[in-house]
Amino acid sequence: MKRDDTEKRAKVKVIQFDQHQHALTELEQHCETFADVGGLEDIKKKINMDFILPLQNPEYFKAFGKATGGSLLLFGPPGCGKTFIAKAIAGEIKANFIHLELQAILSMYVGQSEHNLHDIFEKARDNSPCVLFIDELDSIGGNRQGMSQHHDRVLVNQLLIELDGLGTFNDGVYVIGATNTPWYLDPALRRPGRFNKMVFMPPPSEEERVDILNLKLSGKPHDQIDVLKIAKKTCHFSGADLEQLVSDALDQAIERSLQQGKLSPVHQTDLESSLQGRVPSTLEWFSTAKNYAMFSDANKAYQSVLDYMKRNKLK
Ligand SMILES: Nc1ncnc2c1ncn2[C@@H]1O[C@H](COP(=O)(O)OP(=O)(O)OP(=O)(O)O)[C@@H](O)[C@H]1O
Ligand SMILES: [Mg+2]
């Protein structure tokens, strides 16, 4: 699907927390679907099995006494599509989507943030089937002992209470959390029934980089581009790094068009020159993750990270 095929995109009700009005606001939005997400086939398959099929066939799951709903924790280096795929899940299942940036509910009034959090879970239950996406989980999920502020601790406890409802009264509510630093999460959040399914979102492979570059160039005026050549030179680049690369190349084409007074498409050289001096933004994350994966990973939650590093010859 082309990115400009807006009318074919799923329309979903998106509920967001308005930081200024301190209230939930609703709007109808066209959401991305899996077709807009380059690569990540294994992850799409897993999400399909765990999330989408139960939602589309609830009668089978109910017959066997299984609740439809659940939770998933996406983790990985920045810019590798955690937020992007969560939105695409909502588009894919045409469920209502609540996007909660935790930072937004950290109210200055003591006691207000946990009410806000409770209201948001209530809203998700009222709007089921609903995907509740809790982004930037690290901003509160931190280890409770290590937290300086009592008020943050209360909020983590509230989150635990809400998540515990997942098996019973959260039927049809799908909670997706995202974090760059899962090792800082309160271990209580990772217990069964809460965020016990962790999914690693790695940087795109060479083949996936081809897909992403094509998606980002699609609909823009461009020459015949050797995308594979660029993909070969962008090992460890995140999806966001690739998006930036294409965006810089588009800027060059616009500048040239303005100078020449006629439309000048993106050339291969624009991409090559915007690649100059650019380094992948994911490497720093891997050097930190490696320590946690090797020395504090009793449950092998980070084995996927080590496997990725080995496969991609990262030290
Ligand atoms: N697999 C992908 N296919 C297409 N675009 C992608 C993909 N991965 C990342 N992108 C692009 O990169 C941008 C940044 O991705 P996103 O915001 O989802 O990263 P993130 O993992 O949530 O990062 P952070 O940890 O910084 O929040 C997206 O808006 C999207 O345009
Ligand atoms: Mg994000």
From TrEMBL:
Signal peptide: none annotated. Residues 68-205 form the AAA+ ATPase domain. One of its GO terms (molecular function) is metallopeptidase activity. It comes from the Bacteria. The keyword Membrane does not apply. The keyword Cell division applies. Keywords: ATP-binding, Cell cycle, Cell division, Coiled coil, Hydrolase, Metalloprotease, Nucleotide-binding, Protease. Belongs to the AAA ATPase family. This is ATP-dependent zinc metalloprotease FtsH 3. It comes from Bacillus paralicheniformis.
